[in-house]
C-alpha cells in the first residue's frame, strides 16, 4: 500500500502554490470529485489546515532497499519561477524545459511496483554511475528520468538475490529485464543514494542510447480518446467509486488516501481515477503494470475495478477475523471478571478462601504429621517459603516456582522410617523362597539384620552385586527389601550422562526437578528404603558433567547423612538408606566410586544349581503363567539336564527361563489342539456320523482307567509324533484304536444313563499327560546350540586345555601348536586366533621360557632353534585377551618339542614370568565350573588362588583333583610326569 507523506514545511509550500493557482478554486471541482467528496463528507469544502486553503500533499509508495525496509521521503516542492503560474492542477511541479521535451532519458529500474502518474516513490540507487548521472541531470535543470518495472526472475531465487543481480546488470542485459512501458519521473530530491521520484506521464522504450548508465529513447504515450458522456464508462467509474466507498468504511488508511488525493489533484477525471485505484490497491506488481500499460480508459477502469473488488473482499475477511478475535478476547475477559467477582463474594461471606490461603493450608496440613520429626533447618525454610508465597501474585512465574518447591519439601518423609524385620530366621526363610544358592549374598544380608537387631536401629550400607547377566542381581535386591520389610525403589543409571538426574536441577531453570533420590523418597514415603541402583558400571559421561563423580556424595557413608540436592537446597539424611548396586564388570566402575562399595561377586550357577532353580522356581512360575496344571505335563530329569548342558551353558538362568517358557508354550498349544479334536470326535459320535464299534475286554480296562484314575492317561513321545507344517514341535498324541476309544465313550455314557447321571457331552475332562524327555526335546527347543567343549578325549601332541573367564561365565579352550617348517636357524613363532595384546605378549614369553626349559631338560634338542612354529587358539571369530594363558602356551610348546602328549583330563590356568614364576588369576569359580562341565578331573591353579578355591561350595569342588603351583617346574612334572 502507498503511504501518505506530509510535513509542515511541505504543507506550507503546497498551500502557497495552491493559493496562486486559479484552477484550484472550489468552482473547478469536477462531478467525480464532488462524488468522492460526498463519500468523505467534504461537500466541496476546503481543508482548514492552512488558512482555509487547500493543503497540497503528495503520495509516495512503499519502496524497499536491499534489506526490505520501507522509506518515506519528504518531497520538496519546486516553486515556480517568477512570471510563471501553475498551468494545471495535476501533481506535477513546473520545470523548465517541459516534460514532453524529453525524448531521451535515464532508465531507472523499479524492483517492487510501477510508478503511476501523480504519485511519489522513493527508490535507492546502488549504481554510483547512475546516481552521478541523476545528480548531474538535476543540476542541468533536466530533472527527469524513466522509471520502468523490472520483470520477474525464476521463482527459485529470493528477493534479496534478485535485487543484487539487478544492480550488477548493465546495458542490454538490464534493458531486457525492464518492461517497455514505464513512467516519466521527475527527480524531486536526492539524499545520499535515495532518490524521490514524481510520476508524470506514460513512456514506452524504443531503443537504447547508452549502456552505462543505461539511457534510452522513449515515446510519450497518451490515453486513447474516449467519450466522457459514455454511459458504460460512467457506470464503470461509479462502480469503482462505490466500491471505494465500501472499502472506506473499514479502512481509515484508504480514507486518508482519497481525501489527500482529491485535495491535491483537483480535476479527478476517469483516467486518474483508474490510476488512483490501482496505485493504492494491494495488488501485485504485474497487475499494476498491466493497468499502467493499458491506454484504453474503459479497459483501465475495468482492471482497476477488479483490483478494488479484491480489496473489498480482503477487507471483509480482515473484518471477520478481527471480529472473531475480539469476541473471543472479550468473552475471556468477561469470564475472568465474573470469576474474580465470585471469589470476592465467597471470600466476603466466608464460604471460600483464596488460592494462596488454600495452598498454604494444604502444605501445613501435609507437614503436620511429621512436624516433630522434621529437622529445624527444613522447618525454617518451609516457613520462609510459605510467607513468601503469601506476598507473591498468583499470576507471576515466581509463584509457581515457590509452590512447586513447597510441594516437594512437604511431600518428603522427614524422619518417617518403616518398621524393619530383625528376625534372622524369618529373613532366611524369605531369601530361600526367592533364590536358590547365593550363600554369600544371603549371609551378608543376615549379618546386616543381626547387627540391626543388636543395635536396635537400622543403618545404611552400600552393597555392590557383580556378576554376569542373568544370575539374578536385580531380583536379589527385591528379595532383600522383602526380607528386611523395607520399601523398594529401583532406578537404572545405564547410559546416564546428566548430573542433574542425580543431584537435581537449579530451581531457576524452566522445568526444574529434584534428583532421583528425592523422587525416590517421595515415591516410597519412608526415609529408609532399599534403593537398587542398576547397571552402575555403565554410567555415561556427557557435556552435562560426570555422573560417576556426582554419585560419590550419594554413596559415601560419611557424606550422605547431609546429601544436598540442587533443587531442594537443604540437607537430606540418607544414612539409613540401604543401597544395592548391580554391575556386570566391576573394572568399569571408577575406583573412587568402587572404594565406597562392598562388592559381593556372583560368579554364576553350576549345573546342579541350575537344576534346582529350574525345578523349584522357573518351571513352577512358567507353568502357572501358561495356565497348565502339573498333572498335564512332565519334564524328565534327563531332559532338563540336556536342556542345561546343550542349550543354556551361560552363567545365569535367563536363557534357561526362556527355553522353559518355549517348551511350555508348545505344550499349551498341543493341549488346546488335542482338546478341540477330542471334542469334535465326541460330537460326531453323538450325532451318529461316526459309528462306534463293538467293545471288548480291553475297552473295559481303558474305561476303568478313565473312571478311577486322575483323568489322565500318560503317553510317551515314542507312541506318535506328528510334526506340524510350520516345523513346530511334534504333538504327543495317545495312540488308542478308534474302536476302543469310541466303545469306551459309549460305555461311560450308558453307565451314566443307568445311574441317572447327565450324559457326558465333552471329553475335555479326560486330559492327556505330555511327557518331555531327551528323545523329543529337540522338537520343542530345536537342535542343540552347544556341543561338548571337549574336543579330544586324549589331547594330541602340542594341544593343551586351558581355562578362561568370560562375561557369560567360564569356558574351556584349547591352545594348539604345530610345526610349519624346519631348517637351520629357522626358529620363529606365528600367532593366530584373534588374540589381544596381552595374550600376544604371553605367547612371546611362553616361547622364550619354553626354549629355556627345553635347553635345561634336553640340551641336545634344537627344536626351537630350527623350527618355525604356529600357535593357534581356536574360535578365531571370538576376541580373546587376558593374562592367564601363559602356562598353557608353554605346556603346548613343550609338548610339541618333546613329542609327548600331556596328561589326560588335565586343564590349567595361570600367567608365567620369564623366571618361570606362576602369577595369580581371577575367575576361579567360573573356571572351576567350566572344568566340571567338560569332565576335567585335574586342574592346575596358581598357589595364590588357593584361598579363592577354598571359598567355593563343596558341590563345586567335589570330585576334582586340584594342584596349586608357584613355579612352572611343578606344572612340568604334573603334565609330563607319570604317563602310561
Automatic annotation (TrEMBL):
Domain annotation Lon proteolytic: ranges: 794-978
Coiled-coil regions, chain positions: none
Binding residues for ATP: 467-474
Gene3D superfamilies: 1.10.8.60, 1.20.5.5270, 1.20.58.1480, 3.30.230.10, LON domain-like, P-loop containing nucleotide triphosphate hydrolases
Matching InterPro entries: AAA+_ATPase (IPR003593), ATPase_AAA_core (IPR003959), Lon_bac/euk-typ (IPR004815), Lon_lid (IPR054594), Lon_proteolytic (IPR008269), Lon_Prtase (IPR027065), Lon_prtase_N (IPR003111), Lon_prtase_N_sf (IPR046336)
Molecular-function GO terms, alphabetical: ATP binding; ATP hydrolysis activity; ATP-dependent peptidase activity; sequence-specific DNA binding; serine-type endopeptidase activity; single-stranded DNA binding
Active site feature: 884, 927
HAMAP family named among the record's database cross-references: lonm_euk (MF_03120)
Subunit composition and interactions: Homohexamer or homoheptamer. Organized in a ring with a central cavity.
Protein name: Lon protease homolog, mitochondrial
Species of provenance: Kalanchoe fedtschenkoi (Lavender scallops)
Amino acid at each position: 500500500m502507498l503511504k501518505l507523506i506530509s510535513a509542515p514545511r511541505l504543507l506550507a509550500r503546497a498551500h502557497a502554490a495552491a493559493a496562486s493557482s486559479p484552477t484550484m478554486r472550489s468552482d473547478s471541482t469536477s462531478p467525480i470529485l464532488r462524488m468522492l467528496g460526498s463519500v468523505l463528507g467534504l461537500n466541496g469544502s476546503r481543508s482548514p489546515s492552512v488558512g482555509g486553503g487547500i493543503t497540497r500533499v503528495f503520495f509516495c509508495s512503499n519502496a524497499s532497499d536491499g534489506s526490505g525496509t520501507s522509506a518515506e521521503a519528504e518531497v520538496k516542492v519546486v516553486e515556480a519561477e517568477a512570471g510563471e503560474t501553475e498551468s494545471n492542477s495535476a501533481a506535477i511541479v513546473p520545470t523548465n524545459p517541459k516534460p514532453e521535451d524529453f525524448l531521451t532519458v535515464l532508465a531507472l529500474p523499479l524492483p517492487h511496483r510501477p510508478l503511476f502518474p501523480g504519485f511519489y516513490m522513493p527508490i535507492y540507487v546502488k549504481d554510483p554511475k547512475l546516481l552521478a548521472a541523476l545528480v548531474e541531470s538535476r543540476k542541468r535543470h533536466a530533472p527527469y528520468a524513466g522509471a520502468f518495472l523490472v520483470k520477474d526472475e525464476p521463482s527459485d531465487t529470493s528477493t534479496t538475490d534478485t535485487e543484487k543481480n539487478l544492480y550488477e546488470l548493465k546495458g542490454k542485459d538490464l534493458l531486457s529485464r525492464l518492461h517497455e512501458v514505464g513512467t516519466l519521473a521527475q527527480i524531486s530530491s536526492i539524499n545520499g543514494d535515495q532518490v524521490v521520484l514524481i510520476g508524470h506521464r506514460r513512456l514506452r522504450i524504443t531503443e537504447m542510447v547508452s549502456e552505462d548508465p543505461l539511457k534510452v529513447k522513449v515515446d510519450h504515450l497518451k490515453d486513447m480518446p474516449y467519450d466522457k458522456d459514455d454511459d458504460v464508462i460512467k457506470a464503470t467509474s461509479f462502480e469503482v467509486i462505490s466500491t471505494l466507498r465500501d472499502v472506506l468504511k473499514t479502512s481509515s488508511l484508504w480514507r486518508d488516501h482519497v481525501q489527500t488525493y482529491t485535495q491535491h489533484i483537483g480535476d479527478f477525471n476517469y483516467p486518474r481515477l483508474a490510476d488512483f485505484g490501482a496505485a493504492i490497491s494491494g495488488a501485485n506488481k504485474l497487475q499494476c503494470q498491466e493497468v499502467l500499460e493499458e491506454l484504453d480508459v474503459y479497459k483501465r477502469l475495468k482492471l482497476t475495478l477488479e483490483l478494488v473488488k479484491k480489496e473489498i473482499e480482503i477487507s471483509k475477511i480482515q473484518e471477520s477475523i478481527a471480529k472473531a478475535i475480539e469476541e473471543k478476547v472479550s468473552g475471556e475477559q468477561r469470564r475472568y471478571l465474573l470469576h474474580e467477582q465470585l471469589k470476592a463474594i465467597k471470600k466476603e461471606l466466608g464460604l471460600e478462601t483464596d488460592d494462596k490461603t488454600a495452598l498454604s493450608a494444604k502444605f501445613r496440613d501435609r507437614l503436620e504429621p511429621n512436624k516433630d520429626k522434621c529437622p529445624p533447618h527444613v522447618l525454617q525454610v518451609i516457613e520462609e517459603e510459605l510467607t513468601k508465597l503469601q506476598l507473591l501474585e498468583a499470576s507471576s512465574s515466581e509463584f509457581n516456582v515457590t509452590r512447586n518447591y513447597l510441594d516437594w519439601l512437604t511431600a518428603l518423609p522427614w524422619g518417617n522410617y518403616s518398621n524393619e524385620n530383625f528376625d534372622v530366621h524369618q529373613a532366611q526363610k524369605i531369601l530361600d523362597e526367592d533364590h536358590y544358592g547365593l550363600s554369600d549374598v544371603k549371609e551378608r544380608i543376615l549379618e546386616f539384620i543381626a547387627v540391626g537387631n543388636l543395635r536396635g536401629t537400622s543403618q545404611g550400607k552400600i552393597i555392590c552385586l557383580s556378576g554376569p547377566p542373568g544370575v539374578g542381581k536385580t531380583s536379589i535386591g527385591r528379595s532383600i527389601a522383602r526380607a528386611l520389610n523395607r520399601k523398594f525403589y529401583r532406578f537404572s543409571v545405564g547410559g546416564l550422562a546428566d548430573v542433574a538426574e542425580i543431584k537435581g536441577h537449579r530451581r531457576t531453570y524452566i522445568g526444574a526437578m529434584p534428583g532421583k533420590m528425592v523422587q525416590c523418597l517421595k515415591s516410597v514415603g519412608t526415609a529408609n528404603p532399599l534403593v537398587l541402583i542398576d547397571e552402575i558400571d555403565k554410567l555415561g559421561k556427557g557435556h552435562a558433567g560426570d555422573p560417576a563423580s556426582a554419585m560419590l556424595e550419594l554413596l559415601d557413608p560419611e557424606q550422605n547423612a547431609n546429601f544436598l540436592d540442587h533443587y531442594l537446597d537443604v540437607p537430606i539424611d540418607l544414612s539409613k538408606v540401604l543401597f544395592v548396586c548391580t554391575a556386570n564388570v566391576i573394572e568399569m566402575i571408577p575406583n573412587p566410586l568402587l572404594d565406597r562399595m562392598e562388592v559381593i561377586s556372583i560368579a554364576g550357577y553350576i549345573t546342579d544349581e541350575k537344576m534346582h532353580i529350574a525345578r523349584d522356581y522357573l518351571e513352577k512360575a512358567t507353568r502357572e503363567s501358561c495356565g497348565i496344571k502339573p498333572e498335564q505335563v512332565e519334564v524328565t530329569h534327563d531332559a532338563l539336564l540336556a536342556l542345561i548342558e546343550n542349550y543354556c551353558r551361560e552363567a545365569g538362568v535367563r536363557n534357561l527361563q526362556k527355553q522353559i517358557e518355549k517348551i511350555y508354550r508348545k505344550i499349551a498349544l498341543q493341549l488346546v489342539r488335542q482338546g478341540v479334536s477330542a471334542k469334535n470326535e465326541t460330537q460326531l459320535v453323538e450325532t451318529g456320523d461316526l459309528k462306534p464299534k463293538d467293545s471288548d475286554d480291553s475297552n473295559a480296562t481303558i474305561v476303568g482307567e478313565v473312571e478311577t484314575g486322575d483323568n489322565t492317561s500318560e503317553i510317551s513321545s515314542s507312541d506318535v509324533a506328528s510334526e506340524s507344517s510350520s516345523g513346530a514341535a511334534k504333538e504327543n498324541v495317545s495312540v488308542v484304536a478308534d474302536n476302543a476309544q469310541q466303545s469306551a465313550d459309549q460305555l461311560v455314557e450308558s453307565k451314566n444313563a443307568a445311574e441317572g447321571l447327565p450324559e457326558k457331552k465333552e471329553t475335555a475332562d479326560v486330559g492327556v499327560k505330555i511327557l518331555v524327555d531327551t528323545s523329543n526335546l529337540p522338537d520343542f527347543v530345536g537342535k542343540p546350540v552347544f556341543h561338548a567343549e571337549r574336543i579330544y578325549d586324549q589331547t594330541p601332541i602340542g594341544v593343551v586345555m586351558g581355562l578362561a573367564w568370560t562375561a557369560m561365565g567360564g569356558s574351556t579352550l584349547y591352545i594348539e601348536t604345530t610345526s610349519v617348517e624346519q631348517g637351520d636357524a629357522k626358529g620363529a613363532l606365528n600367532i593366530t586366533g584373534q588374540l589381544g595384546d596381552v595374550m600376544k605378549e604371553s605367547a612371546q614369553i611362553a616361547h622364550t621360557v619354553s626354549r629355556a626349559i627345553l635347553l635345561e631338560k634336553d640340551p641336545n634338542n634344537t627344536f626351537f632353534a630350527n623350527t618355525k612354529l604356529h600357535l593357534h587358539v581356536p574360535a578365531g571369530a571370538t576376541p580373546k585377551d587376558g593374562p592367564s594363558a601363559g602356562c598353557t602356551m608353554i605346556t603346548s610348546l613343550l609338548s610339541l618339542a618333546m613329542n609327548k602328549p600331556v596328561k589326560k583330563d588335565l586343564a590349567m590356568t595361570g600367567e608365567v614370568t620369564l623366571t618361570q614364576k606362576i602369577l595369580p588369576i581371577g575367575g576361579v569359580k567360573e573356571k572351576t565350573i567350566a572344568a566340571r562341565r567338560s569332565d576335567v578331573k585335574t586342574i592346575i591353579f596358581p598357589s595364590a588362588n588357593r584361598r579363592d578355591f577354598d571359598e567355593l561350595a563343596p558341590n563345586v569342588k567335589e570330585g576334582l583333583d586340584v594342584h596349586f603351583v608357584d613355579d612352572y617346574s611343578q606344572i612340568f612334572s604334573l603334565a609330563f610326569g607319570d604317563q602310561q
